[in-house]
Amino acid sequence: MLLLFGLLEPTAQPPIEPLQIAERFVAPEGWPQMRDYLCCEAAGQARRETLGQQIPARLRRHSELLHQDSARAVVAVELRDSTTRNDFYLHFTREAAGWKLQAVRSLAMTALGAPMLKMLTEMPPAEVTRYNQAHPAANHAFAVGNIRLWVGADADIMRHFNRRRPDFQKVVRLLKAKQYFTAGPAGAAADEQAANADPAVQALLQSLFISRVTRRDTSCGTCLEFVIGGRVDSTVGVLYQPDAAAVPAMSPDRLIVVRPLGNGWYLYKTS
Predict the structure, then answer these.
(1) Residue 188's CB: how many other CB atoms inside 10 A?
(2) Which fold, 13-105?
(3) For site-directed labelling of 33, which of 16, 45, 64, 215 has its Cα 20 to 30 A away?
(4) Sheet of 234-240: strands edge to edge?
(5) Structure pTM?
(6) Pick from 12, 15, 14, 18: nearest CA to 100
(7) Which residue, 267, 193, 190, is CA-closest to 223?
(8) What DSSP line would sit under 127-147, residue for residue?
(9) What tens digit of pLDDT does each residue of 6-34 get?
(10) Are the C-beta atoms of residues 250 and 74 closer than 8 Å to each other?
(11) 72-80 and 85-95: which strand pairing?
(12) Interatomic CA distance for residues 177 and 173, integer angstroms
């Protein structure tokens, strides 16, 4: 009988991993066990419905694990339909009871982008000419391309980067050749001003729809950050750091996503 009782005892269920939690949390149907896998900020926000129940049912959802170690994990979720794509990021922490969803993040303050883009793309030719005369350092073509990247999906930014990768590499070589960003943190502001004022650097950045190059956007200190744009502290750009160990860790409080693009390049967003 002892053997029989032992066989009838329920076996322990394997812990649910962050990617599995994310997929259930963003699925269109509800998830009765949701509260068991939330903590911190997320527990206070998702009281009755999962995020997936709040998202229009027509949107397709794709979840991708970006990082997982013994204590933290980040899952990127892409929402898309026939005309739009959007991205947000689920940050997890590991507690004694297992993995918990800690916070949900996305690039903030992008709502201004659509009306700005509409205004620019509907300008008649004469008005475009006047715009270019008034904005010689950031002409109409730059403004349109830059805003499209700023409010665009991660996939759009990655496609743009891969298409123009040689020119991004050219900027890095130019910065090194002219010894910008070599003075360390103490000279970061002066280096940034000089680099972005350099006509050769400026011309390349404008062709890439990059607002500026800096070392102060992600608090990395040794990274080159090609800032696309954003508002206040919510920015998006492309980061270069060939030493993977020096790339800052993702966190819901500052660097909400870092997506590898290969050979020391990363897409990043801050909050």
Answers:
(1) 15
(2) Nuclear Transport Factor 2; Chain: A, (3.10.450)
(3) 64
(4) 212-214, 224-231, 234-240, 265-270, 255-262
(5) 0.91
(6) 18
(7) 267
(8) HHHHHHHH-TTS-HHHHHHHH
(9) 454 544 556 899 999 999 999 999 899 99
(10) yes
(11) antiparallel
(12) 6
Instruction: Decide: 73 and 64 in contact? Cβ < 8 Å.
Output: no
Rounded Cα distance, 200 and 138, in Å: 15
Residues of the chain with CATH 3.10.450: 13-105
215-258 pLDDT, tens digit each: 989 989 899 999 999 987 899 999 999 999 999 999 999 999 99
Residue pair 231/150 in contact by the 8 Å Cβ criterion: no
Which residues make Cβ contacts (< 8 Å) with residue 81, sequence separation at least 6?
58, 59, 60
Q: Which amino acid is at 46?
A: A
Using one digit for the tens of pLDDT, what is the confidence trace for 246-262? 999 999 999 999 999 99
Nearest-angstrom CA–CA distance, 78 and 14: 27
Residue type, position 15, single letter: P
Which two tokens mark 17? 């991993």
200: its two tokens: 């050769």
